[in-house]
Design goal:
Layout lengths: L2 H13 L4 E10 L11 E2 L1 E14 L5 E5 L4 E5 L10 H15 L7 E7 L9 H16 L6 H15 L7 H8 L4 E6 L5 E5 L5 E11 L3 H22 L11 H6 L6 H25 L3 H18 L5 H12 L4 E4 L5 E9 H19 L4 E5 L6 E3 L2
Helix pairs in contact: 2-3, 2-4, 3-4, 3-5, 4-5, 6-8, 8-9, 10-11
Bound molecules: adenosine-5'-diphosphate and magnesium ion (MG).
Adenosine-5'-diphosphate binds next to helix 2, strand 6 and helix 3.
């Protein structure tokens, strides 16, 4: 049965009435990786996989929540000490608390919800969950909180109630997402701009290596340190540089001998990626998806060879995509595992997926998972 009907049926069974339906989405990031902490751009979009929740005020001081996917019912109060034990319920509790902290009204409500964003695959199921409830509570309690603040409610929820020290991109994309559009977000100024993304004749597909190499968090901290080191060196000559992305290639060259070569290569990637996001935006305005794809390959090269956050499995899929003449392919997310994102011409889709499954399984003992994505709307009230 369709997700929406399952939710409505369960809600009626538990609570004996109907309420309003809300949904929000997971996200992809087309290009702009390891750029957020360097004051650069990210370029995400919401996808056609999300969380849907029916939500209605219940006149009590308790939240009564049922997760269809976990087949579990949880009740909790709205004070700081009422934090529930179940991880999924904590996401909802955190949204309530962060809304209250911002002066919003939240009273008891009922909810039944479900989703189809694969968990932990790099598509941000958690942001979809937070954004659905941040949007829904704002709507039903008429708080008038602006969209940026709704995204921050999700981010603070992760920081304060779920132990994840994330940036703003996932929640931003989930709240601001618009069908047929990607959103370029400047991570330094938080200015954003929509760009059309409607690749007729192409499909976007993710291939999930289903591996997560241990290195990820220590390497992440090292990459940040390298970027800060390069940035500090450049600042001596150019005090106006606040983040690495404020610098240019010539300024980086000036300090080449003064910093470890490794730090230089990391910084070289970051400056290249800054320009690539801008180039992708230009190409999209011309509907030139072949150029977009080529820039995706360049990002993969940079992440693999200069930034060194790829791994054998990701490089394998990327190389296979190139060999089969796939338009664009790169690792998406922090690296050391997770997915590649691929822009594939319609006629190549079937052979590419088939070949990727067979070849990958031969080499690594399991098939990659396949997620087709279409750029879709973010948080909204479901009216039809
Ligand atoms: P991701 O990279 O997908 O965001 P996270 O580990 O950050 O992975 O978030 C996954 C968590 O979000 C799950 O463990 C669960 O607590 C919650 N969650 C995501 N989707 C659902 C869902 N459909 N139903 C209930 N909880 C969900
Ligand atoms: Mg998450």
């Amino acid at each position: 049965m369709e997700m929406k009907s399952r939710i409505q049926e369960k809600y009626k069974t538990i609570f004996g009435e109907d309420a309003q339906l809300f949904m929000s989405a997971g996200r992809i990031n087309l290009i702009g990786e390891h750029t957020d902490y360097n004051g650069g751009f990210v370029f995400p979009g919401a996808i056609d996989k999300g969380i849907m929740a029916e939500v209605g005020v219940n006149g009590t001081e308790k939240v009564k929540a049922f997760s269809l996917d976990y087949d579990e019912y949880v009740e909790f109060g709205l004070d700081e000490e009422d934090k529930p034990d179940q991880a999924w319920a904590r996401y909802i509790f955190g949204v309530c608390r962060e809304t209250i902290k911002r002066g919003g009204k939240v009273e008891g409500f009922n909810t039944v919800f479900a989703g189809d964003v694969p968990l932990g695959a790099g598509l941000s199921s958690s942001a979809a969950l937070e954004s659905t409830f941040a949007y829904a509570l704002n709507y039903i309690f008429k708080n008038g909180i602006d969209k940026f603040e709704l995204a921050k409610i999700g981010q603070s929820d992760e920081h304060n109630y779920c132990g994840v020290n994330c940036g703003i991109m996932d929640q931003f994309a989930s709240i601001f997402g618009k069908k047929g559009n990607l959103i370029r977000l400047n991570c330094k100024t938080l200015e954003y701009k929509y760009f059309p993304f409607d690749p007729k004749g192409y499909r976007l597909v993710l291939l999930d290596t289903c591996v997560k190499h241990e290195l990820a968090s220590s390497a992440y901290n090292k990459r940040r340190a390298s970027c800060e080191n390069a940035c500090r060196a450049i600042q001596k000559n150019h005090p106006e540089v606040e983040f690495l992305s404020d610098a240019n290639r010539a300024w980086l060259e000036e300090v080449r001998g003064q910093i470890p070569e490794e730090d230089f290569l990391r910084a070289e990637y970051v400056l290249g990626e800054y320009q690539r996001v801008l180039d992708v935006c230009d190409a999209l305005e011309r509907e030139d998806y072949e150029t977009v794809g080529e820039l995706m390959y360049q990002t993969h090269f940079g992440l693999s060879r200069l930034y060194e956050v790829s791994c054998e499995e990701l490089d394998f899929l990327n190389k296979l995509a190139r060999k089969l003449d796939v338009t664009g392919s790169r690792v998406m997310g922090g690296g050391f595992g997770g997915c590649t994102i691929n822009l594939v011409r319609d006629e190549l889709y079937e052979p590419f997926i088939k070949e990727a499954k067979v070849r990958f399984a031969e080499k690594f003992g399991h098939e990659p998972k396949v997620y087709d994505v279409v750029i879709s709307d973010g948080a909204h009230l479901v009216t039809d």
